[in-house]
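Technical note accompanying the year-one report. For the benefit of new consortium partners, we illustrate the data format agreed upon in the data management plan: each record pairs a sequence with a structure-token string. No post-processing was applied to the example shown here.
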Amino acid sequence: MKTQRPKNLDLRTIRLPLPGIVSILHRVSGAILFLMGIPLFLYFLERGLHPERAGEPGIFPRLLLVPLIWAFLHHFCAGIRFLLLDIHLGLDKPQARRSSLWVLGVSGFLTLIVEMLAW
């Protein structure tokens, strides 16, 4: 007996559930932390090692900090969610959806708070 399998997977028409979106964003935030965090860290390290060039960082590095701070906070919150899933807490669909909403909400809220404190 053969199973019915999809013949054409059109990625534009597939609707991903919210926990799947949070999982993808967790990976994206990790990539942002790696790709943006290292150059920005080196930039601030270089400015700190040369006191004559130290001072106010300017608008461009500050604007780069916004996605970097979001990436860190989202990666942290989603990581806690995945640790709870690893110990079999929140595996049911309603609980997984609710925890995904919490991750998005808390990471967004914390990003706004940190940005307001940083400026």
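Partners are asked to follow this layout when depositing records. The radius of gyration is 19 Å.
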